Amino acid sequence: MDNEFRDDRVCFVCGEKNPAGLKLRLRTDPKRGESAAEVTFAEDFQGWAGIVHGGLVATVLDEALIYAAAAKGLKCVTGEITVRYVKPASTGVTYALKGRFLEDRGRIVLAESVLVDGDGQEIARATGKLFKI
User: Selecting from 1.20.810.10, 3.10.129.10, 1.20.120.450, 3.40.50.300, what CATH number does the domain 2-132 have?
Assistant: First the structure.
């Protein structure tokens, strides 16, 4: 199954070859099992005027989960994600995205992620159950 999952650098979130993508550069800390990036959503990613579509917020939170697991050397896909939206994200504003590995349960990996603004205020958070591949 692992052969079916290869990175051709066209991922919508992190792929530098995707002209329509976010091109996030997620950093990882293997010792801590963490991922981090800065994200600024262009106007193209809005739902309501000036407000980032909630699906895009969930998408970057999901990516941070996967990268946090990868920081621990685990190749995973998302099995379940729960997102808690705290307040709307605005287009054109830079946010900090952070992911953290929580636990390896054999086939399942638990992780969490958060999107915060420049004042450290939480915008949204996610918890995820990831399947190892």
Answer: 3.10.129.10
